[in-house]
Every structure is written in C-alpha cells, then in structure tokens.
Amino acid sequence: MNRPIQQRTLKTRARLLEAATEVISEAGYEALRVEQVVQRAGVAKGTFFAHFRDKDALMDQLIGARMDGFLDQIDRLPPPQSVDEIVAALMPLMSFMTCERYVFDLILRYSGAAARADIGPIAMTFERHGQSMARWLSGGPFRSDVSPALLAEGVQAFAIQAMALSFCALHADAPFQARLAEYLRAWLLPVSGGAGSGR
Amino acid sequence: MNRPIQQRTLKTRARLLEAATEVISEAGYEALRVEQVVQRAGVAKGTFFAHFRDKDALMDQLIGARMDGFLDQIDRLPPPQSVDEIVAALMPLMSFMTCERYVFDLILRYSGAAARADIGPIAMTFERHGQSMARWLSGGPFRSDVSPALLAEGVQAFAIQAMALSFCALHADAPFQARLAEYLRAWLLPVSGGAGSGR
DNA sequence: AATAATTATTGACCGCGGTCATTTTAGATG
DNA sequence: CATCTAAAATGACCGCGGTCAATAATTATT
C-alpha cells in the first residue's frame, strides 16, 4: 500500500540538489562529479542514484529549472513586433543554453524526451517555448501563409542551428545574434514566392 | 627527424577499423566496446588510443565514411525540381543518421568540429552537404529572395529538427518524411510576405 | 511497546574509457 | 652483422558513472 513520502527523502534530495548547485557555481556543469556532490551532501554514492536515475537526470532537473526561469522572463515581455525584438528577447535564454558546450549537447539530447515514458524538465521547456513563440507569431507583422505553430518550430530549428554554429570551428565568423536575425528574417518575412520565373 | 610511416602502423590501423566495422555490423554502434575491438584486432588497449584520440574519434571516422557514401549517391542525382524530390533524395542519408539514437547524438556533437583545430569527417560531410544543397537550390523553382547558401543552411536546420522530432516522445505522431516536406515547403516556397495587412 | 512490512541508505564492487612508464620492434648507420 | 634510435605496442593502472545485496530507519499493525 502507498505510504506517504518520508521527510527524510525530501531532505536528502534537497541536500543533493543544493550540493550540486554549489559545485556547478564553483566549477561549471561539465566539471561536476557525482562523488563530489554526495561528499558535500554527506550521503553515500548509492543514495544519489536512488534519487536520480543517472547523472544526466540531475542535469536535466537543474538545467531545466534555469531554462524555465528564462522562459518566465520571456513570457512577461510584450509580443515583439520585429525580428530584432525576437532575437533580443531570446538572447538571455540562448546565452545560457550555450554557456558550455557540455550544457548545449545535453540540452539537445534531452530536448525531445529520451524515453517515451518520462518527459523531463528540459523537454517541457521546449514545449513551453514553442507555445510562447506561436502566440507571439500569430499576431505580429509576420508571414501568415503557414500556421503559427509551424512558424514556431522553424524559429526553434533556426535558433538551434545558430547556437550550434557558434560552437563550430568552420563558420565561427559571424556573431550569433546576426546569424539568427538573418535566419529569422528569411523565415518570418519572405519577400517573393518562386524563383526567376513567376509562379 | 621525420621517419616514414611504418607499414606496421597502417596494418594495425586497418585491423582496428576492420574489427570495429565487424563489431558494429553485429551489434550496432552503441554496443561497441573498445576492449572488444582491440581483442578482435589482436592488439593491446593502449594501441587503440595511439591510433584514435578516443572512442568518439573512431566513430567520427566510421560514421563520416558512411555519410560520405550517401553524399556520393546524392551528388550523382540530377537537381530536384520539387520539395518532394528533395525529401526523397535526402532520405537514405537521413535514415542512416537516425538509425540509432547514439549515432544521431554523435553526429550532432561532431557536426561542427569539436575543437578549432581538427575538422573531422562528419563535419566535412555537413560542409559538403551544404554545398550540394546550395547548388540544387540555386537553379530550381525555389524562392530567390535569399542566397542559395542561406537556403541550404535552412534545409539542414529543418532536416535536423525533423530527425530530432522523430526521436521525440512528444510529437512522435507525424512520420518523418511528411514533417520534413511540410518544413521545406514553408521554407523554400513561401506564398505571401506580411501578415493580414499587406506590406 | 513489540513486531512486522516498507522504504531509504550504504559502500564494496563492476564496467569501461582513457593514461603512461616500460618494453619491443623497425629501420637507418657504420 | 651489430648497434643505435625513433616509433609503435604493451598492459597495469586510474577515474568515474552506475549497481546491488545487505543494513538501517521509518511507519503500520497487534
């Protein structure tokens, strides 16, 4: 029969999360070692894995929470009326997503939930981001020949492309913001239909 | 002083690559263990790492080679004249890129070279793919208000988005091809410019 | 309060990628 | 052929994520 969750459990989990946050703030995400976290939290290694499926699951929690904070900021903004405003609005979130190569790679891996069962925090933020984006794009001075939902997916695709290229050895020339703005202008404000010959 | 490369070296590397290929064909990419590869190749573990920086570097080689094969096929095709033809042309490559979650993640990680110094085989294929794509899109019945190079980047971004969503727990509904076709129609054949009010 | 049934914690242990001081081998030199 | 030297190969070792049978702590039952 389902017994209630023990307070001990909540306390231990909180201590683990706090310890992890400390380690990250001191050394960054990539440098985090599970052993270091459990040592700080004063628990055994096995306890960690009783609370988180694996190290990535902890990262999913922590990184997802940070992303959610940036989405809160975004949702407080008035709908942007230009590509430049969109880019500006997205910048804080994007900056965080690219703060470390390790973080970006992990976000990509978890952007669509790994297993069918558990959709994690990061996957949720992508969902949320898509919805906010669709809301924005349904009202503004942007193209209307495709659905706002599709426009939003495109914005996500281009944002990821721009972020990925900012890590890229080739194409390290153009700054991230300029590239994203170029993409979004072409995506959200197309000028003509067909090629040389009219349609 | 620079002595010539010993034949022993080439032979050992070839044996390692062959052994790795065998293991993969039997158990898939994700299941590959370095220890198993060196055992089959009849060399010590350390030897492996004298030939490949790490396990990922081996994967970069092998996966990059496979991708290059598919690109050869693509380059033999006549320039497609519709979105459906583009999707059809890209399918074999895409299918391989998504044959395993592990493979897709690794490709993403290596799509823009990891370190500034060494651009690996996978990164090269992305470059090549972009160029082939730009060539295709500069002639056909596609939009001409942005450069073929930019169009090509968009196709890559949408292809990656479509592949990623095919692994996604949410959005596992629409089949991969249909989604990509929808993206590319919106990207390559936009109908109007602004929203409700004309521009 | 004593006992039973669950749940949480522990830490020795494992798998596997990667390292490095040491040894072996290939090939140039006298 | 003997000798010397740079390159290649070796395998014991390490770091670190993750497991699991055993133990401790908590809650329900009498």
Describe this protein's structure.
The structure is a homodimer of 199-residue chains. By secondary structure, chain A is mainly α. The first copy, chain A, folds into 2 domains: 7-52, Arc Repressor Mutant, subunit A, CATH 1.10.10; 54-188, Tetracycline Repressor, domain 2 (Orthogonal Bundle). Chain A contains 9 helices and no strands. Chain A has helices spanning 7-27, 34-41, 45-51, 55-76, 83-97, 101-111, 121-139, 148-167, 176-188. In chain A, 33% of the residues are buried. The interface between A and B is large, with 51 and 51 residues. The structure holds a DNA duplex (30 and 30 nucleotides).
Strand composition percent of chain A = under 5%
Order of helix and strand elements from N to C terminus of chain A:
HHHHHHHHH
What structural category characterises the helix and strand content of chain A?
Answer: mainly alpha
CATH superfamily of the largest domain in chain A: Tetracycline Repressor, domain 2
CATH class of the largest domain in chain A: Mainly Alpha
- State the share of residues found in helices of chain A, binned by percent: 55-70%
Q: Tally the helices of chain A.
A: 9
Oligomer: homodimer
- How far the N terminus sits from the C terminus of chain A, by CA atoms, comes to 68 Å
Mean pLDDT of chain A: 92
Question: Which sheet architecture does the biggest sheet of chain A show?
Answer: none
Which topology of the largest domain in chain A does CATH recognise? Tetracycline Repressor, domain 2
The total number of structural domains of chain A is 2
Radius of gyration of chain A: 20 Å
Number of strands of chain A: 0
CATH architecture of the largest domain in chain A: Orthogonal Bundle
Biggest interface pair, counts? A-B, 51 and 51 residues
The global form of chain A is elongated
